[in-house]
Amino acid sequence: MDVLQLARWQFGITTVYHFLMVPLTIGLSVLVAGMQTAWVRTGHERYYKMTKFWGKLLLVNFAMGVVTGIVQEFQFGMNWNAYSRFVGDVFGAPLAMEGLVAFFVESTFLGLWIFGWDRLSKRVHLACAWAFSLATIASAYFILAANSWMQHPVGVDFVDGRPRMNSIWAVLTNNTALAAIPHTIAGAFSVAAAFIVGVAAWHLWRKRNGDDEHRSVWRTSLRLGGWVGVVAFAALAITGDTQGKLMFEQQPMKMASAEALCHTEQPASFSIIAIGDVSKQNCEDVKTFNVPALLSFLAHSDFKTEVKGVEDLVGQYQAKYGTNYPDDPALGELAGKPIDYTPSLPVTYWGFRIMIGFGAISAGIGVLALWLTRKGHIPDSKWFPRLALLGIATPFIGNSAGWIFTEMGRQPFVVVPNPSGVDGVWMFTAQAVSNLSTGEVWTSLLALTSLYAVLGVVELFLMRKYVRGGVEGVLPPKDGQPKTESLSFAY
């Protein structure tokens, strides 16, 4: 592999790994704040215990997320310095806001929440929990604003061969960002909900034949996770529809690649599943099961809109952006070579369906959890906790597939041209990579992948330890302790 491929693999591995922690932190932080709110308002001990238990797991995951996230921004200077020089005047602003505003507030109030259980009043301590959880959402907002600018550059002028920001407000209110943010947050709640359902179902089954003083904790958690998972999937469907319509306008090649739509159709059918090699340009070699005119509706809210196919779009891109890469030695083997404007169709086609399918499975397990716990029932069969534990992985897979589709579907661009934006504000991925040797990138790729593998083992060990420890593992010893209202968090 050349430097470009290695750099892309490194960024992909580290990003997907980091994003396994991010949605769980966002979703759990809000749900834990909600649990603590219920405790402060009602005084019921089960909400206090829920806050303690799920809060412990939140902290473990947050710590790992911070460690793995630090590498992300360093990579812009390591492997992508040409990209950093091109977008630095724009990209730096939302990233600085994320670090100086959101992450600072997030860390400060998390510290107050951890150490303030027996030092702050209930309401002040609760306010710290909400401040932390809202700061995690703000952090995601600034990161997504930066990513959305790469997908749809706005608020800039093109000066001396580089974009110069003329409106931070335009960058932060980019319609692509405003659609991506609720979709990402809904995905985070889906992850947190599946995690809660899986762990709570296992604990309920674990002590099904004996007395369990914490049974109400697990049953309430299970139902909370079920409801949140169902609502989150509904939100994902609504926000995903909004993103699809923007994708039709802003990145038509991504929409065509999501359907492996080789030829323009009017109206366009939505492919449920394909049999054959979707990477082949000859669409007659692939058998698909379609819903007539549905893709037109998803693109433009009607059943007659024309949707461009890959072959027609390639011609348009070649006419506007060229047929060959510049004859620049910095491009290495790609210098002067033909530009492939077609993303990897197997990745985009199946990634899009994995995203939807695994999200639906997660919501289905949530519905099942609500049904089995209706009218005070406790699930007592061994198949449900096993299914719920396996279900923890489904929204993680769906989220990862969605991000892989989003990023790989924009290739060969790292900054995608805005159809109604400023000419020149776009960049090929091949032009963005640093001038490094393959040995240097191999070294960092192997080192970071190995480090992340070790961190993954540590996270799984700690999560397993505190999950198996249950509520007892996060509460201080009962002997000689004051009432639960003034107990330390024991962290």
UniProtKB/TrEMBL annotation:
TM ranges: 20-41, 53-71, 91-115, 127-150, 185-205, 217-238, 350-372, 384-405, 441-462
Highest taxon in the source lineage: Bacteria
The keyword Transmembrane belongs to this UniProt entry's keyword annotation: yes
Keywords, in A-Z order: Cell membrane, Electron transport, Heme, Iron, Membrane, Metal-binding, Transmembrane, Transmembrane helix, Transport
Principal location: membrane
InterPro entries, alphabetized: Cyt-d_ubiquinol_oxidase_su_1
Subcellular location as annotated: Cell membrane
Pfam families: Cyt_bd_oxida_I (PF01654)
Membrane topology: Multi-pass membrane protein
Family membership noted in the UniProt record: Belongs to the cytochrome ubiquinol oxidase subunit 1 family.
Protein name stated in the entry: Cytochrome ubiquinol oxidase subunit I
Organism: Amycolatopsis dongchuanensis
